[in-house]
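User: Write out your own:

AI:
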Amino acid sequence: MLTIPWSQTTGWQAPQIRPYGPLSLEPSVTVLHYAQTLFEGMKAYRDENGKVTLFRPDMNMKRMNRSAARIALPTFDGNALLDCIKTLIRLDAHWIPQEAGHSLYIRPTLIGTQRAIGVNPPSEALLFVICSPVGPYYPTGFKPVSLMATTEYIRAAPGGTGGFKLGANYAPGVVPQKEAAKLGYSQNLWLLGPEHYLTEVGTMNMFLAFRNDDGSTELVTPPLDDVILPGVTRDSVLVLARDHSSGKAPIAGLPGKLTVSERPITMKEVKEKADNGKLLEIFGTGTAAIICPVERIGYLGKDINVPTGDGGI
């Protein structure tokens, strides 16, 4: 594991790589009382030639700094931290699985460690990075999942912290997830407002494909609007789809007439598209799940069935 302490008086101290083990924290440290914590999720892959690669890690560093600034934790030099993480991965390279769909998950974390009772910017912090081999995120592997569109809970609201990768954003989602599981669904679909705008799928961003009246296809994802986490995989899908749509880098198998949109979507629109045979596909995107197809959505007591192709996609 990699550890880098920080204090208001000395700044960032020397990075240290040591065996994975417990952290020594006093009971009064601010992370334990005021949720002064954030994290990132990254993956290291081994290709068919044995080369180890990271997927757009610069974006994780930028997002981590943005999250730190939001909760008054210290920011850092993203390139310097990335160099430290690469050193850690080289030492742990033997843990990177070679099976298809498997990787080494990398978890950079930043916590407030000031020993004080009181809500203030912490004068001490600790940045640490741990790694673990992982396989497919869902027990079903890469098969389609079912969603429960929850109308009782919300994940985030405008002006809040939904657009940042903070620890405090995740624990409140556990109870809704358990309730969705009891009803036979894999994950929650988070809605917002009386209009039931779509936001995120569990801890993933989401995309929908619609057939337009003129026969063209629209690939749409909800706008970030400081409610939705700016996912690295989400951004990658948008870049690839827009390059295809513009003719810059066509992708075999995608529709020739493709419009890529970031716009609000309501459950009313999704239901109408499904009823009219114009809902083509829904999928979630994220570092953990990568691309996850959706086969049905439970909404107001009824299921909306979603088309899935061979292998679920």
